[in-house]
Design a protein that fits this description.
The complex is a heterodimer. By secondary structure, chain A is of the alpha+beta class. In chain A, 30% of the residues lie in helices and 44% in strands. Chain A folds into 2 domains: 29 residues; 163 residues, Lipoprotein localisation LolA/LolB/LppX (outer membrane lipoprotein receptor (LolB), chain A, Clam), CATH 2.50.20.10. Chain A has 6 helices and 11 strands. In chain A, helix 4 runs antiparallel to helix 5. Chain B is an alpha+beta fold. Classes of the chains: A alpha+beta, B alpha+beta.
Chain lengths: 198, 788
């Protein structure tokens, strides 16, 4: 255990140090290009997620959790385990939804709202700035160690559904995705990165 | 002499009347090229269904269109323009290219009628517990990625009936959209799917539909800004196949007739060196062709294109009779009478053996085959009769053809030496027997596809477009019959419930049913009755939301909708109009000959076939239900024909042997006549097998022809007394006769239509072999006695 804690301790120490000397670090703020380049470095990643949806017609938020798998450049799998097993696989332009025995294959283009939402995650994970900027206006804040990326839809059709998407991360890891819908409902997905599969 | 002349005159008059009658019949004859000739005359219920589906079913009305070339935006734009034009055209029931034309209306129809349409609507579902379960499912769905799409529906449809319906209707495989129009998976081709109003068997209407598509495409090209884009249009589908195969057969038959007449005429001209002889020699041929077509027209009501193609080849056989007359007789009128005495009996026997062979085909349940049999019999009788009774009277007094005695003498010498070849020929024959026995399992191709006049390239295009489109491949069908729409829909619902269990067990991927879009009135009423009255539902709903993160106050729209559904008028077929579901009901619910039928196409599980037995067993409990595997059914139909044709051909052979036995009363003599023919048949069969060509029904007809034509040669070579030599003139006539036959049939071997090609590759070598074997194995006349 100690072998594990020690590097982490060192990391936190570094962060603390960084905060102390923040004026120096902030002199070189993180650019979108840098962030994207960092994100683009990892060809694949597996993570677990927990998603909370705050829907106005429901009294309480509904929670779901499962696994995320990303394989660059275009494959994103979201396997929900709770409350109901469900799989969503985005590969290229094809979105496959599996729920129970039902399997739906959709073309992303047919569903611009859904497409906008999913594309934001995939393109961010892939570090694909071009794809992001086709759909969103990008605003980046923070530092390499802790950044916030806010996406605002350019297309009014997407904007009618999604108000904005806010992602937070550290270095080249996305930690959370918050989607605020135009009608005020929102969802918050927190992502815990797993060890990269061998 | 005067007596003969008067008789001759009478024959000519009768002949002319006969020709006029034939021409009259032919002028009113309907020519077909569709599958009708391949369908049985006395079908079983499964076969009847197969026939109806082939001629008239949903699949038969589909035209798949691809737009290739240019770039993706251009292809999509062309697709939209073509669709827009054709949607206004009454020729088409529907034109789909992925544009959301009906989507809004479809959704509205489903949503407004969800409580009548959803199979989930039962009294239990609207109890407090049922509502609780349905609600918590809907809330789970909100958590899923699809949640966004259903969120707005929750207050009106908390039990998720709309989701139920959409899941049921989702066909799963739709082509992808590129620039707003369907495109192939690789994105290089825009795709469209059209359904014609006319049946697939209505070839003229299909041709009209194809022309309309092509015209719309060209207009769309013209509208393009700047230079017209370099896009091409491709089409496929059963209707397209019947149009193109009609064109192909028509073109091929016309071309082959012209070439074969030209070839045979050239050959005869070289031999006769006389135009009048040529013209006279073709008279029996023309008479035979006319008689054949007229007979088939009278017997079957229509003449198939393949029969005409076969007729082309038979020209080469019919011309033989006049060759025998001209070449075998001496160069004067008296000798023509002499010819009649000396040679006519042999030729008559040859004609009779041919008739005996072909008569067996008349018994075939396969109308295509029976047509060939009738054509051959009528044609040969007419040609032979005209040669015997009309032609001698028409010959000018000093009629003469080029002297052929030189060739005849050479042939005589060759034939004298032919016996040298007995051993080599025996070895070849033995090898052929070995090949036939060795390959006996793979001699025949018993899939119905082998009969298709559609070219390989067209089949490949069809497979490609179909795969791109995910177009229905209607292979497995459950068919429910009944006296009226209501009973058929009710039975379809029972079958659906049963099939659903098979879907859940993974034996089926899915199925379609008209009752999905148009439930029986009884079911609709039962669903209405499942909905509790508003006050009751309100109480239950209040109980149901306990423990769920929703408040009952959210659902007044739901209460209003169910209250309306309880008293809404029941759905009729006409309510579906203008929705995509109308097309499905149209195709799956059929009224025909006073009977109603519901079709439930089944989809096989991925990468597998449907195991028919458990489904068939389960369905046997419901009356008037039929499970049909269309492909197996059509292959069974064809292999049935094939076996029947083999049996009939053997029957024909027996008839020929019996005829010869009656005439000659000598088994040895009959054996000598039959042996070379059998040898030729075996050698041809071995040759086909060696070249990897599996035999279809038309090869068999070809073999029968080899026996029929070859019997003439064998009869000429056969002599009761081996000391009588074969006249050189006779040998020359046989050579020319076989050459014309080979010219006629040999041409067919180059046909692109598989059926005609099969005839060609069998008959042309078979006839030559029959002549060779007859010569080689003929009894040798004593040496030196070859003087004519």
């Amino acid at each position: 255990m100690t072998r594990h804690t020690r590097p982490r301790f060192r990391l936190w120490a570094l962060v603390w140090l960084a905060l102390l000397v923040s004026p120096l670090v902030q002199a070189a703020p993180l650019s979108i290009a840098q962030l994207m380049a960092g994100l683009a470095k990892s060809p694949q990643g597996a993570a677990t997620f927990t998603e909370k949806k705050f829907i106005s017609i429901l009294e309480q938020p509904i929670e779901s959790s499962g696994e995320l798998l990303f394989i660059a450049p275009a494959r994103l799998e979201k396997r929900t385990l709770k409350p109901k097993p469900e799989t969503m696989v985005l590969d290229g332009d094809t979105l496959t939804l599996e729920r129970g025995r039902r399997k739906h294959v959709l073309q992303l283009k047919d569903y611009p709202e859904v497409a906008g939402m999913i594309e934001s995650i995939r393109a961010t994970l892939a570090g694909d700035r071009k794809a992001l900027e086709r759909v969103y206006h990008l605003a980046l804040d923070g530092s390499q160690e802790r950044w916030t990326l806010v996406l605002t839809p350019l297309d009014p059709k997407v904007g009618a559904v999604i108000a904005r998407i806010r992602m937070e991360g550290a270095k080249d890891v996305v930690r959370s995705v918050e989607i605020l819908q135009a009608d005020g409902d929102r969802s918050l997905m927190t992502i815990e990165k797993q060890a990269p599969p061998q | 002499m005067i007596h003969t002349r008067r008789r001759g005159l009478a024959a000519i008059v009768l002949w002319l009347i006969f020709l006029l009658a034939c021409a009259g019949i032919i002028s009113r004859t309907h020519f077909t090229t569709d599958l009708s000739a391949f369908l049985p005359r006395a079908p079983t219920p499964e076969q009847q269904l197969l026939m109806d589906q082939l001629s008239d079913g949903l699949a038969s009305r589909l035209i798949l269109v691809g737009i290739e070339g240019a770039d993706a935006p251009t292809r999509a734009r062309l697709s939209r323009q073509i669709a827009q034009r054709l949607r206004a055209d009454n020729t088409f029931v529907s034109v789909n290219n992925g544009e959301p034309v009906n989507t809004e209306r479809d959704r509205a129809f489903l949503f407004d009628n969800r409580y009548l349409l959803s199979p989930a609507v039962t009294p239990e579902r609207f109890s407090a517990d049922g509502l609780h379960a349905a609600l918590s499912d809907s809330i789970d769905l909100l958590a899923s990625p699809a949640g966004l799409l259903v969120k707005s529906l929750l207050p009106r449809d908390p039990t998720g009936e709309m989701v139920q319906l959409l899941e049921q209707l989702d066909s799963g495989t739709q082509p992808k959209l590129v620039e707003g129009a369907w495109a192939s998976r690789d994105g290089t081709r825009a795709l469209m799917l059209m359904q014609t109003r006319a049946a697939g068997s209505d070839t003229d209407a299909q041709q009209h539909a194809m022309a309309a598509i092509r015209q719309a495409f060209e207009q769309a090209l013209d509208q393009a800004p700047g230079a017209p884009p370099s896009a091409q249009l491709v089409m496929t589908g059963p209707g397209v196949f019947s149009v193109t195969s009609r064109d192909t057969i028509k073109r091929q038959v016309t071309r082959l007739s012209i070439i074969s007449v030209a070839l045979i005429a050239t050959l005869l001209l070289l031999v006769y060196r006389s135009f009048s002889a040529l013209a006279l020699g073709l008279l029996p041929v023309v008479s035979g062709v006319l008689a054949g077509i007229a007979a088939v027209s009278l017997g079957f009501g229509a003449v198939h294109g393949i029969t005409l193609g076969f007729g082309t080849a038979l020209i080469g056989e019919a011309v033989d009779y006049s060759i025998y007359l001209f070449v075998q007789s001496e160069q004067n009128r008296a000798d023509h009478q002499n010819w009649i005495k000396r040679f006519w009996p042999t030729i008559r026997l040859g004609v009779l053996t041919s008739i005996a062979g072909f008569a067996s085909l008349l018994l075939s349940g396969f109308p295509g085959l029976a047509q060939l049999g009738l054509y051959a019999i009528a044609g040969l009788i007419a040609a032979a009769t005209v040669t015997r009774f009309v032609l001698p009277s028409l010959l000018p007094v000093n009629f003469r053809i080029h002297d052929l005695s030189g060739i005849g003498l050479t042939l005589s010498r060759v034939v004298q030496r032919a016996a040298i070849l007995r051993w080599p020929a025996a070895i070849v024959l033995l090898a052929a027997c070995a090949i036939v026995v060795n390959n006996r399992a793979s001699l025949w191709d018993d899939t119905i596809a082998s009969l298709s006049p559609v070219s390989q390239a067209e089949v490949e295009l069809d497979t490609r477009l179909r795969a791109d489109m995910g177009a229905p491949d209607v292979r497995y069908l459950v068919v429910v019959s009944g006296a009226n729409q209501e009973s058929v829909l009710g039975a379809a619902e029972r079958v659906s419930a049963l099939l659903q269990t098979h879907v859940e067990q993974g034996r089926l991927a899915g199925f379609e049913s008209p009752s999905r879009y148009l439930p029986s009135l009884a079911t609709q009423r039962a669903r209405q009755a499942s909905l509790p009255p508003r006050p009751q539902l309100e109480t239950r709903l209040a109980q149901a939301v306990q423990g769920l993160p929703v408040r009952a106050q959210l659902f007044p729209p739901f209460l209003a909708d169910t209250a309306a559904a309880r008293s809404q008028p029941l759905l009729q077929a006409s309510d579906l109009q203008q929705t995509s579901m109308a097309m499905a009901v149209d195709a799956l619910l059929i009224q025909q000959r006073g009977q109603w039928r519901a079709l439930l196409p089944l989809t096989a599980p991925e990468g597998g076939n449907i195991d028919a037995d458990p489904i068939r067993a389960a369905l046997s409990a419901i009356p008037d239900v039929l499970f049909v595997d269309m492909k197996a059914e059509s292959d069974r139909l064809y292999s049935g024909y094939l076996h029947e044709a083999i049996v009939l051909s053997l029957g024909g052979l027996v008839a020929i042997v019996a005829l010869l036995l009656v005439v000659f009363r000598s088994p040895m003599r009959v054996l000598r006549i039959i042996a070379p023919l059998a040898a030729a048949v075996i050698t041809v069969t071995a040759g086909l097998s060696l070249f990897g060509q599996q035999m279809i029904i038309l090869h068999l007809v070809g073999l029968l022809l080899v026996v029929a034509v070859g019997s003439n040669y064998a009869l000429f070579f056969d002599r009761p007394d081996p000391r009588t030599p074969i006249l050189p003139r006779t040998l020359a006539s046989m050579l020319f006769a076989s050459l014309t036959t080979v010219a006629g049939f040999g041409l067919l071997a180059f046909s692109k239509v598989a059926l005609l090609q099969a005839l060609g590759v069998t008959v042309a070598p078979g006839v030559i072999l029959a002549l060779f074997y007859s010569a080689i194995f003929a009894r040798q006349s004593d040496a030196g006695s070859i003087h004519a």
